[in-house]
């Protein structure tokens, strides 16, 4: 039961940080998203994001910071195994399913719903 509490707290704190970036620092959504992705990448590079995932579960894997974590994590794993080429292939290997799903579901939604513009 405690894992649900910590997932809520950690995920909520990540969202609060994003909201503060909007409201206080007046950053655009693109700047906020980029900052959160890069933060997740840096935390993974320092070896701090995996312990956060172990502690908070979905509270750390659902927010956008997890995308940065996945990019660096995949690149580092494949780089250790295949060298410089592994950096590129590792990024695509780890993130391709999520990116493909986003593209496919966005396309389906565009077919079903009438976009306003």
From TrEMBL:
Keywords: Membrane, Transmembrane, Transmembrane helix. This is Stage V sporulation protein AE. It comes from Lottiidibacillus patelloidae. The chain crosses the membrane at residues 6-25, 84-113. InterPro entries: Spore_V_AE, SpoVA. The keyword Transmembrane helix applies. Pfam families: SpoVAC_SpoVAEB (PF03862).
